[in-house]
Amino acid sequence: MSHTTHLKSVAIKxxxxxxxxxxxxxxxxxxxxxxxxxKPRMYYDNQHGKCDxxxxxxxxxxxxxxxxxxxxxxxxxxxxxxxxxxxxVGADVNVCPMPTTPxxxxxxxxxxxxxxYARHAAVNAAVTQGYIVESTHTDDKGNxxxxxxxx
Length: 151
What we know:
The protein is an alpha+beta fold. The chain has one domain (4-149). 29% of the residues lie in helices and 27% in strands. It has helices at residues 15-27, 84-89, 102-108, 111-128, and strands at 4-6, 32-38, 51-57, 64-68, 74-79, 132-138, 144-149. The strands form 2 sheets. The protein has a 5-stranded antiparallel β-sheet with strand order 1-5-4-3-2. Strands 6-7 form a two-stranded antiparallel ribbon. The longest helix has 18 residues, at 111-128. The radius of gyration is 16 Å and the shape is globular.
C-alpha cells in the first residue's frame, strides 16, 4: 500500500538496545510500549501482517513494526500518512533538518527512536568488547558521544 514505509537501510540487530530506547522514550513522556508478535496499526487494517516486535504508540493511530530480515536483523515498517509516527518519535527539526530524500524523510520520522537505539547499541557493543563506558552525551546537534575506558 502507498502509505507503508519499509526502512530496510535501518538494521536493528540488538533487541536489548531497542528495549532500552523504548524506555528512554517513555522517560521523555512518550506513551509507548514494545510488544511482541503482533500487528502494527496502520491506515488500512490489511496493510501489514504481524511483526516480531511492534512499538505501540498510545497517542498515535499508527505504530512502528519491526520485520525480521534474512540476515536476522529487523527493519522498521510504519505508515507515514499524516506524520503521526513522526510526531511521537521523530527527530527534532531544530536539531536535525528535514532530509530531502524520501528515505531520509522516513528515517527522520523515527529519528528519536533510532538515536536512542544507536546509543544503546554502541554502549552494548563497547561493553561486549571489554570497554568501560564512563559516560554518554548528546550534543546540541544531536550527535551522541561515548567516553570509553579500557579494562
